[in-house]
Amino acid sequence: MKLQTILEHLEKQGIDVEFLGDSSHQVSQVSGLSEASPEHISFLSDTKRMGELEASQAGAVILKPEHRDITSTNRLLVSNPYYVYALTAQLLNPLNLEPGIHRKAVIDPSATIGESVSIGPNAVIGANVSIGDGVSIGAGTVIESGAQIGHRSYLAPNVTVMHDCVIGDDVRMESGCVIGGEGFGFANEKGEWHHIPQIGRVVIGDRVYIGNNSTINRGAINDTVIESNCIIDCLVQIGHNVKLGYGTAIASQAGIAGSTEIGQYCVLAGQAGVTGHVTIADQSHFGAKSGVTGHIREAGSYSGFPAVPTAEWQRTMVRMKGLTKMAQKVKRLESELEEIKSQLENN
């Protein structure tokens, strides 16, 4: 692909690009700075890698305008190189899925299938399902009755969308996702557990990403809601009636208990956990393995278990590192005190 094609694509996306070099130069793939060769396009977003940029053999580099003089190769000067790298990687690595329905797919006659849809072998489409234009459904994926899939969404092989759930436009779900499974609802009578049917749905907005083997449970009565522009990593569990605010990001192995409301642009790092029935303020960030046990009413960074402001948690960790020395010192002081008491008693 000529660099000119990439430049035209970026301009269509509204990116302000200043280009220096030969726009007829061709690249075939993106690459890291150190590994790149002339047929690659790379990027610089971390100033710690300036040395790699100087030595790079990349045929083109995406970087900020203030770094234009560090290299003489073809340069795309932009305000956010990492974002432009993402757009370029998408352009060079399209899905290239051919529209068509495999003969081994099972589709209920009442289902509505849009235009240019790809449905793989052994996929099962239930009654009254609605599938938008340009959707791709992988092999073995199951979409149960009444579910709705928005335009251009991609469901990898072996995804399950349970009955009546709603998926927005441009959603990507990787293999093993289960959307709309039964929420963890049980009533106890004299030590015996009795299942409560979960009659809500899962409603997912537009441009949401859900990684491999993540599960989002349907609501007990009201819906579980994932707002647009959320990104959810692999192996994440989201309980029934959770509401996830716009633009929130959740890393692998995080778990969110039922009826929790998480605000917009929040971040949960790996293995973070949130108890049920709490509310979390917009733009709250939680470190790895942090545990949220109560309401978070102010935006900020939180860490530890139970989660507290990160600065407070860091001070506590510093003190904990000194506990052994402190205990030894206390033990010595106790011995000295006993010795003084003994002397006083003898006198």
TrEMBL record:
<dbReference type="InterPro" id="IPR020573">
    <property type="entry name" value="UDP_GlcNAc_AcTrfase_non-rep"/>
</dbReference>
<keyword id="KW-0012">Acyltransferase</keyword>
<dbReference type="Pfam" id="PF25087">
    <property type="entry name" value="GMPPB_C"/>
</dbReference>
<dbReference type="Pfam" id="PF04613">
    <property type="entry name" value="LpxD"/>
</dbReference>
<feature type="domain" description="Mannose-1-phosphate guanyltransferase C-terminal">
    <location>
        <begin position="104"/>
        <end position="181"/>
    </location>
</feature>
<keyword id="KW-0677">Repeat</keyword>
<comment type="similarity">
    <text>Belongs to the transferase hexapeptide repeat family. LpxD subfamily.</text>
</comment>
<protein>
    <recommendedName>
        <fullName>UDP-3-O-acylglucosamine N-acyltransferase</fullName>
        <ecNumber>2.3.1.191</ecNumber>
    </recommendedName>
</protein>
<dbReference type="GO" id="GO:0103118">
    <property type="term" value="F:UDP-3-O-[(3R)-3-hydroxyacyl]-glucosamine N-acyltransferase activity"/>
</dbReference>
<dbReference type="GO" id="GO:0009245">
    <property type="term" value="P:lipid A biosynthetic process"/>
</dbReference>
<dbReference type="GO" id="GO:0016020">
    <property type="term" value="C:membrane"/>
</dbReference>
<feature type="domain" description="UDP-3-O-[3-hydroxymyristoyl] glucosamine N-acyltransferase non-repeat region">
    <location>
        <begin position="25"/>
        <end position="91"/>
    </location>
</feature>
<keyword id="KW-0808">Transferase</keyword>
<comment type="pathway">
    <text>Bacterial outer membrane biogenesis; LPS lipid A biosynthesis.</text>
</comment>
<dbReference type="InterPro" id="IPR011004">
    <property type="entry name" value="Trimer_LpxA-like_sf"/>
</dbReference>
<keyword id="KW-0443">Lipid metabolism</keyword>
<comment type="function">
    <text>Catalyzes the N-acylation of UDP-3-O-acylglucosamine using 3-hydroxyacyl-ACP as the acyl donor. Is involved in the biosynthesis of lipid A, a phosphorylated glycolipid that anchors the lipopolysaccharide to the outer membrane of the cell.</text>
</comment>
<keyword id="KW-0441">Lipid A biosynthesis</keyword>
<dbReference type="InterPro" id="IPR007691">
    <property type="entry name" value="LpxD"/>
</dbReference>
<dbReference type="GO" id="GO:0016410">
    <property type="term" value="F:N-acyltransferase activity"/>
</dbReference>
<feature type="active site" description="Proton acceptor">
    <location>
        <position position="240"/>
    </location>
</feature>
<comment type="subunit">
    <text>Homotrimer.</text>
</comment>
<dbReference type="InterPro" id="IPR056729">
    <property type="entry name" value="GMPPB_C"/>
</dbReference>
<keyword id="KW-0444">Lipid biosynthesis</keyword>
